[in-house]
Amino acid sequence: MKTIYLDNNATTRVADEVLETMLPYFTQLYGNPSSMHSFGGQVGQKIREAREQAAALIGAAPEEIVFTSCGTESDNAAIRSALQTRPDKKHIIISRVEHPAVRALCSHLSLQGYKVTELPVDRNGLVDLENLENQLTPDTAVVSLMWGNNETGVLFPVEAAARLAHEKGVLFHTDAVQAVGKIPINMANNPIDMLSLSGHKLHAPKGVGILFIRRGTKFSPYLIGGHQEHERRGGTENTAGIIGLGRACELAGRNLEKENTEVRRLRDKLERELLKKIPQSRVNGDIENRLPNTANISFEYVEGEAILLLMNELGICASSGSACTSGSLQPSHVLRAMGVPFTMAHGSIRFSLSVYNTEAEVDFVIEKMPGIIERLREMSPFWKQAGQSCNVQ
Ligand code: PLP
Predict the structure, then answer these.
(1) Of ligand 1's atoms, which has the minimum distance to the CA of residue 70?
(2) Res 380: pLDDT
(3) What pLDDT is stored for residue 384 in this prediction?
(4) Where does CATH 3.40.640.10 sit in the chain?
(5) Over the stretch 196-222, which tens digit does the pLDDT of each residue have?
(6) In CATH, which superfamily holds the domain spanning 4-10+257-390?
(7) DSSP string computed for 15-63
(8) Separation of 323 CA from ligand 1 center, angstroms?
(9) Protein residues whose CB sits closer than 6 Å to any atom of ligand 1
(10) Exactly one of 70, 106, 324, 390 is catalytic; which is it?
(11) Quick one: pLDDT at residue 56?
């Protein structure tokens, strides 16, 4: 059975070009980039190149790029550094829909005496900037808001939010793990102080990420050890991973237009056709302000996990809620924060596409989904009680 992979916000396949670039660094060019000999030195040179490739994708300077192990590490390092470099300040502002890499860290920090404000979102998943402005106090050390939401794809106005934070002298970090490679990002002309990204979301391998730290921003390292990354992140470099990520960033730059034309077109087709064919279904999240690859669709009165199981039987991979929270039958914290009714939130599926998806795959999903939902609704007492007749969309 062929796999139709529509779960690219969970992770992506490593691009062939990326794998090919990485392979020699396991068995042939395995030197330590910090070594004095040229065998290691040549790896150091390749890491410099990867740093330039990554910087170019987000309009940064190479020295503003710090390689880490993942998006979670980058988020943790950014927020912890903001607190360490401003020890007199004890207040953090995030949103209610942040990824656990930020949200769980902040819950942990709240047990250590920090005050955490979680900004609410409206029914479209957007934050209110006026509310952000009102929540900033002289005690606020850092604001951390995600650029693109992993479940709905909704984009936050992070540049405007960073400007507001700066007006009050507050640092601004963004978790751009889902945004990088999907929308244009230019750190050269925005005020954001720190940005996190993750390799495995953009066709590089798992186990490598980046923290962008704007030149001049005070930084206190999370991993203290050797002199690597100009003492901003100790530990022998994941050389193959870093070199692969550099190549993936170069490819992502080239594919950016395709993401915003071809991938968007396929996503829109999928959404349009499913809504047309399946009664009582709806899209979650602001339609205009979204990543081009993400569709979060609710099918009322059915259970997301049951939908996924039947999709799985046909080789179709997607997620219900976020991949990190599946396993619990609680609807996702993102949909709950948006006030999506329980009967809708329970039956929500996230389809996330990539440049590797084809029209034929999307057509297959469009053909199969109505039958899946119908089959489950036939078994659903809630659907029967609701009278089956009303048509929401
Ligand atoms: N932030 C967001 C928005 C994510 O979607 C994810 C992963 O799903 C992460 C952070 C964590 O990234 P990583 O898996 O590289 O730790």
Answers:
(1) 15
(2) 83
(3) 79
(4) 16-252
(5) 999 999 999 999 999 999 999 999 999
(6) Aspartate Aminotransferase, domain 1 (3.90.1150.10)
(7) PHHHHHHHTHHHHTS---TTSSSHHHHHHHHHHHHHHHHHHHHTT--GG
(8) 10
(9) 70-72, 75, 99, 101, 146, 150, 175, 177-178, 198, 200, 209, 324
(10) 324
(11) 98
Residue 373: both structure tokens together: 């939902």
| Helix, strand, coil share (%) of the chain residues, nearest 5 | 45, 15, 40
Asked about 324 being catalytic, the answer comes back as yes
Look at residue 387 in the predicted model and tell me its pLDDT: 64
Task: Give 364 Cα–ligand 1 centroid separation in angstroms.
Answer: 29
> What are φ and ψ of residue 290, in 5° steps?
-140, 155
Q: Which atom of ligand 1 is nearest to the CA of 75?
A: 10
Q: Strand, helix or coil at 210?
A: strand
Measured distance CA(364)–CA(6) in Å, rounded: 12
- pLDDT at position 208: 98
**CATH T-level assignment (fold) for domain 16-252:** Aspartate Aminotransferase; domain 2 (3.40.640)
CATH 3.90.1150.10 range(s) for the chain read: 4-10+257-390
Counting as low any pLDDT under 50, the low residues of the chain are: 322-326, 389-393
Cβ-contact 268, 353 below 8 angstroms: no
- Give the Å distance between the CA of 180 and the centre of ligand 1: 12
Give the DSSP H or E segment for 241: helix 239-258
Q: What is the pLDDT of residue 382?
A: 79
Q: What is the reported pLDDT for 338?
A: 97
CA of 321 relative to ligand 1 center, distance in Å: 14
CA end-to-end distance (rounded Å), the chain: 33
pLDDT at residue 152, as a whole number: 98
DSSP β-ladder status, 140-144 and 171-175:
parallel
Task: Look at ligand 1, atom 9, and give the residue with the nearest C-alpha.
Answer: 71
Note the pLDDT of residue 324: 40
Nearest CA to ligand 1 atom 13: 71
